[in-house]
Amino acid sequence: MTEQIDRASGKQQDGPPPSTTEATEATEATGADSARGRELLPTATAARTRAAVRALTRPHRGLAAGGFALMVAATAVGLLVQPLLGRMVDLVADRRPTGDLTLPFVLLVAVALVQGATTALGLSLVSRLGETVLAQLRERFVSKALRLPLEQVEKAGAGDLTARVTRDVSVVGEAVRNALPELARSLLAIALTMLAMAALDWRFFLAALIAVPVQATTARWYVRHAVPLYAQQRIATGAQQQQLLDTIAGARSVRAFRLEREHTERVTRRSSAAVELTMRGVRLVLDFYNRLHVAEYAGLAAVLVTGFLLVRGGSVSIGTATAAALYFHSLFAPVNSALVLLDDAQSATAALARLVGVADQPVDGPEDRPVDRHSDRPGDRPGGRLAGLAPDGASEAADGSPQQQASERASEQSPERAPNRVPRQSTSVGRDANAPRPPRAGTAGTVSVTGVHHAYEPGRPVLVDVDLTLRAGERVALVGPSGAGKTTLAKLIAGVHRPTSGSVVVTGGTGVPDGTSTDTTDATDTGPVHGSRSGHGNGHGPTVALVTQETHVFAGPLAQDLRLARDSATDDDLRTALTAVDALEWVEALPEALDTVVGEGGHRLTSAQVQQLALARLVLADPPVAVLDEATAEAGSTGARLLEQAADRAVDGRTALVVAHRLTQAATADRIVVMDGGRIVESGTHEELCAAAGPYASLWQAWSGTRTAAHQTPTHDHRPDTTTLKDV
Amino acid sequence: MSPSYPTGRDVLRKSVGGQRRDVALGSLLGSGHQMGEALVPVLIGVVIDRAVTRSDTGALLLWLGVLAVVYVALALSWRFGAWSGDRSAAMAEHELRVTLVRRVLHPCGGAEEGRLPGALANIATEDAKRVGAVNTALMYGISALVGILTCAVVLLRSSLTLGLVVLLGTPVLLWLGHLLSKPLETRSEAEQERAAHASAVAADLVAGLRILKGIGGERTAIDRYRTTSRESLRATLRAARAQAFQSGMVLSLTGCLIAVVALVGGRLAAEGAISLGQLVSAVGLALFLLGPLEVLAWANAELAQGRASANRIAEVLATGHTVTSGDRGLPQPVRGAVRLTGVSHGGLREVDLDIAPGELLGVVATDPAHATDLLRCLARGADPDTGTVTLDDVSLRDLDPAELRTAMLVADHDADLFEGTVLDNVTAAAPDSADPGPAMAAAGVTQVTLALRDGEHTAVSERGRSLSGGQRQRVALARALAADRPVLVVHDPTTAVDTVTEAGIAAGLREIRKGRTTVVVTTSPALLAVTDRVVLLDGGRITDTAPHADLMDRHATYRAAVLA
């Protein structure tokens, strides 16, 4: 845990105002999750949240002042109603002619109209302010959230970010839309009504104050109990929802294993727990109102007694006493709603702190650009890969120069380091020098992994002393048993994680000399080491692209989904990419072809189709280096073959690392690297490794089962001539 | 448990009826509370009238005492009334939820056909809540009606004219407000929908974060989100303006009504038709009346929503079963002879297959859809269109599907794990005292638990998504083996498992199922190698049957299917 926090704050080291309490808050927040080693995303402190809101509001000061002034005016005008009513009572009490009632009546109508108009205008200004600030906040949040290092997101658990982007944004939105104007109106009404009572006679004000201590203690009592209770309620509701999804989505398994009774019980238990907490919440609210009833009565009685005494003493008229009583009666509603809204305000503030916590993350500032001189020294790793997410130069021109510096420094270091660290498995390099096709100039990159050790938790090494070089245009398959560290190595190369020690250097591809060195002469294309994405091999898109078995389609028209990989792509580009992965046919067959809405709420695609789209995005992103981590595993056994062919074409002409699930896919690679227990144990072509009778040979044997006689059959189908297969 | 084909009305009636005591008590006490609230402005008038105007200390004390009694009564009625009302809603919601889950889990199935799990879960939460809320709406609606009636009585007793002005004026005012804001409301609803779009887009982008980062699409996504957010902001602002306009209008109208009541009341008081106190009460009641009238409008909207939700719930409850239940029992002990005779279903054509007790049979289907059809027939996810499936010479149609499943387990390829530890999952369906060790060893779970932080006590979450694909599959297989059924059918149990482990699992499977009928539907050569014989299902028909090695040698289609 400590180590993780260090790393998290390490990321912030040069960032703008570092949130000093971040570490402690993260620790607190993790309480429940600590068993799973979660490290929630940061939450801003109260001071930081206020500062952020101030900063967001500052440009709209005029709007804020105008809105506030109008709301004050509206409330103040509204307070004329009670004295006017009192005036009418006095007129009647003094037995004045009924015609005299007309003036206060007209004034009452005028007050109503003015109050209505100012309220409408004031509210619309206040909501314009709130909504604009909210929109800016959510944009900043999303833009930071999408650039957070995956490492950090994964440590926090995917749910954390999702909860913030959905629940917290909507809680703050609701507050801005409903609670904030209502609270402002109520508080203004209370304050001005009290003032008005004081204006009638200061003794009415004192009488009304009797209710305040009861209301204040009630409010404090309520918030103290409500906050933890509502937190518990949210957890219970979440657990209930999860259980329902568990049971309903798994209904077939539940039936198959005869678990109907147990699952009904589980749902009942979770639902009962939620009901019980709901009722506790109800009791709390009822207690709250009961206490407020006491305050109401005490205040009303005091005001009436005061009126009685003052009228008897002759210092105020009956009308004034009436106005005071009506004032107090009219306070009930705003007081109740203000006190209830305290709770909304509380949860909105907490949600806001979580949003600001992420929006404050210094992920895209120039200071984060990695200068990876020290990547070999553990504990001294700068912010690193975040930088990778840095954008095309144009949009962040201001960052240009530090980026360049970083790149230049990186390029200075690469040549002196890389060549004399020729990977240990370079025994194989000589061999595969004749295997791969010539790289396509300008597209393929190189990868060199040197002396890498990695552990997600101290003492549990996942990778041990790994050296691996991918030459330009080379396709390397990574195979080995589950838990061998294949995915971890893939993630390190893709820049998702930084190695605990050692270095990973990825270069983008213009003019790669000979394919055996990690050296490159083009400074701008020298990817910062673990940041891998700030270099641009082809003028757009990342240096390394990673496709995993994860299936997600972005909601919206299919063309838009694909354009996430290359915004400028024309429809023809999209069709070419789809053709490359064998998807054009079914895409054209969709109801509206490329414009068909897919994803959440749209046309449903099979998981094999979803993966074809992922591969098409890879083609569009056109990276010099591609990492495929079991990208074809989601398809059933029959679909896998087609997806593999699509994957082959998608990485054609790129330097590729393919974590192969099925050995047929590995067999067609330029080189196969076998991992076991976090180490590379073997490397070479399919034939070489089969002949070597090492671990790969036995894997192959196990995979192809009992086929003793037909041992070479599959290779005739898929393997014999990789060059022709891939260069089709 | 649930009526055979309930309608939305049945659901609603049952939901209210099931809580009728709480609903009735809530309505009664809620009415008491409303009467009390209506009396407060009346009593303020009385105090002004009897005590303040006449400087009568005795009257002051008397009426403050009455006010205190009214307060105590209204506070207590509120407390217990609202408690009953809310409890009736929460309990009704809970019972609907459990009923829905029972229906979904019914052994004869059907409820989840054509419905996404998320949508069903939503019906069990949101719609159940809406229907439950009808109880609260009823209670508050009835109370509000009583509050309005109280006002009417008080006002009409003091003056017919003033009473009519207030009683007719307030609904007219609300109706006017509604009428004027109606076009605004419709517009603002549409706009709020567009506003909600921004957060949906954000959630979607975050859900695909890894993919986005994988291809370096963050910048494009951020730009795209900003556009959406701006559009959404414009829509929200239009909606907010409309709403602000509406609030202002309601305020103006209310103010005008009060002015009219004061004018009419003032004239009546000046003429001596009513007392000053009654004038004060009338103004207070006019203000108070807005509350219960709004509650009525709200209750009406809740009822409409409740009806719609009840219809959705009824639809699920009324879904037909996919298979029927029979009443024959299985002869005990189950021998495990499975026979398919002329079975046609989906892509299957006249399949005849005789599986001997204790046999370990492999099934290779050239089309995965045919494999699924076969499994559905065996699991009674559906009954074959023609032909019969028998277990120990009893047709599956004559059996209760629940009883069938205690004898024959069909373990799906994508079987879901459930919340709990790895061990909980493995033993979920195991006989009580059975040792899960052998099943875990056979399925290769022992290696899985070694790699997990808390070993076999590691918690599994999100239906097993917290484990890797290969780990999940092995735990699911161990669960199927530990269930120890006389007949076991497994489907592609090792697609995400590496080759070495797969070979170990194949051997373990053979060993642990020795002497009991086991069918492995797969194209994995490692698993097929340990079977007694393999049937090849090509084009929906069984085209060959022989040991794996023989088929490998002689059958090109088979080789292609297994080695592709």
TrEMBL record, chain A:
- Which UniProt keyword terms apply here? ATP-binding, Membrane, Nucleotide-binding, Transmembrane, Transmembrane helix
User: Top-down, what is the taxonomic lineage of the species of origin?
Assistant: Bacteria, Bacillati, Actinomycetota, Actinomycetes, Kitasatosporales
This protein's name: Uncharacterized protein
Q: Which residues form a coiled coil?
A: none
Q: Name one GO molecular function term.
A: ATP hydrolysis activity
Supply the SMART domains for this chain. Answer: AAA
Which membrane topology describes this protein?
A: Multi-pass membrane protein
What InterPro entries does the database record attribute to this sequence?
AAA+_ATPase, ABC1_TM_dom, ABC1_TM_sf, ABC_transporter-like_ATP-bd, P-loop_NTPase, Type_1_exporter
Q: Where are the transmembrane segments?
A: 63-85, 105-126, 187-212
Q: Does the keyword Nucleus apply?
A: no
GO CC aspect terms? plasma membrane
Where is it predominantly found? membrane
Origin organism of this chain? Streptomyces fructofermentans
Instruction: Output the CDD domains linked to this UniProt entry.
Output: ABC_6TM_exporters
Q: List every stretch annotated Disordered.
A: 1-43, 360-446, 504-539, 708-728
**Location(s) in or outside the cell:** Cell membrane
